[in-house]
Amino acid sequence: MAGSTKNKVDLSVDFCGVTFKNPFLLSSSPVSNSAEMVAKSFEAGWGGVVFKTLNSDRLPIIHPSPRMNCIDYGSKKEMAVQNVEQISDRPLKHNLMEIQYLKMHYPDHPVIASIMGFFEDEWIYLAKIAEDNGADMLELNFSCPHMCIEGAGHKVGQAFHLIEQFTSAVKKNVSIPVIAKMTPNITDMNEPAVYAKNGGADAISAINTVRGISGVGLDDWVPRPNVFGKGAPSGTSGPAVKPIALNFISAMAKCEDLQIPLSGIGGIETWIDALEFLLLGSTTLQVTTGIMHYGYRIVEDMIEGLSDYMVERKISRVTDLVGKALPNLYETDHFELDRQGITQYDLDKCIGCGQCLIVCNDAAGQAIDWDSETRRPHLIEDKCLSCMLCSFVCPVPGLISYKEMPRDWQRRETTVMDPGLEKGLKYEPFTKEGPNECIA
Ligand SMILES: Cc1cc2nc3c(=O)[nH]c(=O)nc-3n(C[C@H](O)[C@H](O)[C@H](O)COP(=O)(O)O)c2cc1C
Fold first, then answer.
1. How far apart are CA 373 and CA 319, in angstroms?
2. CA 102 to CA 39: how far, in whole Å?
3. Residue % of the chain over a pLDDT of 70
């Protein structure tokens, strides 16, 4: 199917005036560390690259060892990866030669140079030298989460005036488009993103890694990765961070003061992840951890899956998908609370495992009567909370689904345990008027 569908749809995107043959890019990290690796990725089908963050050679870069740890969850390997890796430890000259090499051999694959300075002159120096050596765009790394020096990495991303200052300094000195890469280690990304735009940024990319601690050794009590007896809070990436990334991306896409192109990053491993980022407003998509798990070849599945989806939905251009879910994204106070529903069970598919019963009893509405002879659930409809927990634990896809109930349908009140003390209750109703807002 792939061969037949992928040629029927247009996966190319225009991102700040630069054309990518598809929206899939390597993000700045070990997966984009050298021209040899990037060339291999281009052969595999990736549309472009954000090259590993360049270092000006002013300070020697030595990566801690070991530099990563990971969280497996059940049978899912690399649910999250934590890294303490620094920016590129390669000489600047070598990285620039390799950018030139890539432009010479793959002129149709845009190369975005990621840069990180520690002060304004260094930002300008790196920006100009990357442009002079063929970079098609720049990505300003305002977001590395394990920088300890004020004015570097996520410390810039958290000091909004510095974002504007460094973006503006770079923009005044280059003519290629500039992306600002944001840290998720803040509450609201719209504000720093607007500072970047005010500084002249042409686009925003997000997210860099989430500052976290992935585990502690139970034998040595050292947070992981254990760097010779020492651990440190540092960058978490991979599927576990995807909800955080989607939230920031969609908020920026909806921000009226921003309205510049977005490059989505964070936990993208499959075509479905990619599609979700597109639907919530990303024009390009960047990947690291997915590649650190499965290799460059995952792009084939992403291209194939997205193409099949587009053919099925009769969508000819991938750009037509960008932001399509945004009109359906609200704050919770917009929900129609007079519309309620319950779960429904297709018992022909039931295997009698009883997991629905356990979660309904211990975490929901105690809405299941269990027939222990046939090992089948029977739903007590007016006790069902429609939390859907039973459907999450059910091992049979499609067995449990949601059904809306008529508007006059009412859920039964929960049982009250009466202690039997006639006058023991200390209770008076709360009477003062207050704001009538949704309480989540
Ligand atoms: C080992 C490692 C090194 C990274 N190095 C950089 C870097 O040098 N510059 C940068 O902007 N982001 C860096 N990142 C962040 C990634 O580019 C990306 O933003 C993040 O990992 C989230 O995407 P993912 O979930 O697809 O990995 C690094 C990530 C990892 C895992």
1. 55
2. 7
3. 97
Q: State the Cα–Cα distance between residues 286 and 277, nearest whole angstrom.
A: 10
Q: 303 or 154, which is more confident?
A: 303
| Structural tokens at position 360 | 């309904």
Which of 288, 294, 296 to mutate for ligand 1's pocket (most ligand atoms within 8 Å of CB)?
Answer: 288
Superfamily name with CATH number, domain 2-328: Aldolase class I (3.20.20.70)
From the candidates 144, 255, 390, 394, give the one annotated as an active-site residue.
144
Distance from residue 27's CA to the centre of ligand 1 (Å): 6
pLDDT of residue 6: 66
Cβ atoms within 10 Å, residue 421? 7
Q: Domain-by-domain residue ranges, the chain?
A: 2-328, 336-404
Task: Give 290-307 as a DSSP string.
Answer: HHHHH-TTHHHHHHHHHH
Judge contact between 390 and 341, C-beta under 8 A. Answer: no
User: Where would I find the beta strands (DSSP E) of 222-325?
Assistant: 234-237, 262-265, 284-287
Q: What is the predicted pLDDT for the residue at 233?
A: 94
Residue found by looking up tokens 């607007």 in the block: 194
Question: Is residue 437 over pLDDT 70?
Answer: no
Sort 380 into a burial class: Cβ within 10 Å, 0-12 / 13-18 / 19+.
Answer: middle
Residues in contact with ligand 1 by the CB-under-6-Å rule are 27-30, 52-53, 68, 81, 83, 85, 87, 114, 141, 144, 181, 208-209, 235, 237-238, 241, 265-268, 287-290
Q: Which residues pair with 137 in a beta bridge?
A: 112
Distance 103 CA to ligand 1 centre (A): 23
* CATH no. for 336-404: 3.30.70.20
Please give the number of the atom of ligand 1 that sits closest to the Cα of 83.
Answer: 1
Q: What is the Rg, in whole angstroms, of the alpha carbon atoms belonging to the chain?
A: 26
Give the rounded distance of the alpha carbon of 159 from its chain centre.
22
**Helix 35-44 and helix 92-105: axis angle, to 10°?**
30
CA–centroid distance, 38 to ligand 1, in Å, is 15
Looking at residue 2, what is its pLDDT? 46
Q: Nearest Cα to 138, choosing from 97, 100, 108, 177?
A: 177
For the question of residue 144 being annotated catalytic, the response is: yes
